[in-house]
Amino acid sequence: MGIGSICVAETPLLRFILRRADDALILGHRLSEWCGHAPMMEEDMALANMGLDLIGQARLLYAYAAEVEAAGRDEDAYAYLRDVRGYGNLLLLEQPNGDFARTMLRQFLYSAFIDPYWRALAGSADATLAAIAAKAEKESAYHLRHAAEWVLRLGDGTAESHVRAQTAVDELWPFTGEMFEVDASERGLIDAGVGVDPEPLRRTFHETVSRVLVQATLTTPQGGWMQKGGRNGYHSEHLGHLLSELQYMQRAFPGAIW
Amino acid sequence: MSDDARLREKLREEVRRVAGAVVDPEIPVLSIADLGVLRDVTVEDGCIEVAITPTYSGCPAMNMIAVEIEAALANAGLGPAKVKTVLSPAWTTDWMTDDGRRKLKEYGIAPPPKGTHRRLPFGKELVACPRCGATDTSPIAAFGSTSCKALWRCSSCREPFDHFKCH
Questions:
Q1: Could you tell me if B153 lies within 8 Å of chain A, comparing CB atoms?
Q2: Which of A21, A102, A209, B102 could join A61 via S-S bond, C-beta 3.0 to 4.6 A?
Q3: CB contact under 8 A, A45 and B92
Q4: Alpha helix segments (H runs only) across chain B
Q5: pTM of the predicted model over 0.90
Q6: Which residues touch A68 (CB under 8 Å, ≥6 apart)?
Q7: What is the ipTM of this complex?
Q8: Which of A128, A130, A149 shows the shortest C-beta gap to B122?
Q9: In 10 A of CB A162, how many CB atoms?
């Protein structure tokens, strides 16, 4: 473990909150990497704006994690001081941005899942999670629409954009299975009405994805092997590199404030 | 109502008026009362608590709004006050007052349509140009200079304009 790292004694609820917070932070950070590099200014702003929504969601969730853990930490501690094995985000979200098509397809696949997920979580027996979900759901609906519009433009665009979009779908698809994974820790929360069972959302996800991909003249992969591990801290090499940038300041200058 | 309760109610009204007049730092033509960001004011045993709600999860103006509320109340001799953020029920553009919508339009920002709704990809949305009133308008960018705005253009008067997104 790195110097200054924290180790969180995770209860099922704390683990549940941190996994969702990590999803939002890691994708938000990936989108922020586009700042100043997007193919056009409007999309530069769009990617940064979506990243801002996601990092805002992450802050609300980390602040709630701090309240639940009651160990005197603040939201920053979870973001900046946990090592890669402590992160529970989906592998899909830590994948590098690649080209614009890959970034948009990643956004589309995640949004198609998380939008109905937030909607379901808005009915959680946990009032704070329900409130955060109700807020996030409005944002995810807008992200889904924006990403879907780009999937349509790219898939049904030029021969080049079509190939790039299809390659992105094919390469990202094996990471979508993890979204529906439920372990014993989450099963208890689902049974208690706090968590959400993702299984019934599978159909909504597939309907959204198929509808848009068909219209975009892209082929939806069928089944296939699914890569898992992110929820339990087994990540691709990409997350470590991402964290080294995200956490650099707090690691180099512990406790720095400005 | 006892004198005590009457006094407390008077203080509550005063706090609501002063805090509600704080403007959104990113759209200074709108007060937080116009926006529906000011949620509640309570006065309990002489302690003032002001509840505000974020428009978007990542709205960077929230901290500044909280500081400005504290400052406004202190300047009015009403402090100290505690500002807390509440999330539920989630803010929607339907909470924007009619007065707020009028001020937005005069400022050059097309107000959000009433009734929160979702659009399908490339779905039509009717937005009137805040300058000439024409509805022959189209989106330029889904995301604008702040979380709550999108960029549009008017085909009639040719002017680009901000549109406060329906949320």
A1: no
A2: A21
A3: no
A4: 3-20, 32-35, 62-75, 98-107
A5: yes
A6: A11, A13, A14, A17
A7: 0.91
A8: A149
A9: 17
